[in-house]
From TrEMBL:
GO terms for cellular component: endomembrane system
Keyword Transmembrane helix: yes
Alphabetical UniProt keywords: Membrane, Signal, Transmembrane, Transmembrane helix
UniProt membrane topology term: Multi-pass membrane protein
Chain segments annotated as coiled-coil in the UniProt record: none
Main localization, broad class: membrane
Cited Pfam families: DUF1218
Identification of the protein by name: Uncharacterized protein
Organism: Iris pallida (Sweet iris)
Family per record: Belongs to the DESIGUAL family.
Annotated TM spans: 6-26, 53-74, 94-115
Amino acid sequence: MALTSSQIALTVAFFGSFAFIFGVIAENKKPPFGTPIQGKGVVICKFPSDPTVALGALSVVALLLSAISGWFAVFFPYQGKSVPKEALFRSTALTVFFIIAVSVTVLAEGMMMWATITEGLHRSRNVHQDLTTQCPTAKTGLFGGAAFLALDASLLACLPDADPQRQS
């Protein structure tokens, strides 16, 4: 069974929506800071148990699947006929749109990875020599901002085709 353009768009939207949802929940569940526990010459940071890192990782994977689906949608053979890349990118509007869509996707993926890795590092490297450490977490707003960029990226990939002859 061949995939239709609407099925591919739904796949992109499905994974993009999950990337958004996971990112927003990660932002809401992230504690503002950990609890510093004084030791002998060190501060040990204790963080509450929460799913922030797991949700961030799920968001990264969902956005990656959305991006792969969107990439497939651009180069998907329509009715068994493949459109040459040179013909697709002769259009200035499509080229600019494609560059913007890819840039937003890369920015969203990078921000979500940054927030997830930072949060994971704060939790795994929780012993500090600096006795004034306040036990930070990832910067507030990174997960949420990346989530909205992920939603934007998936919506850009799902925009309907303007060519009425390519509608399915």
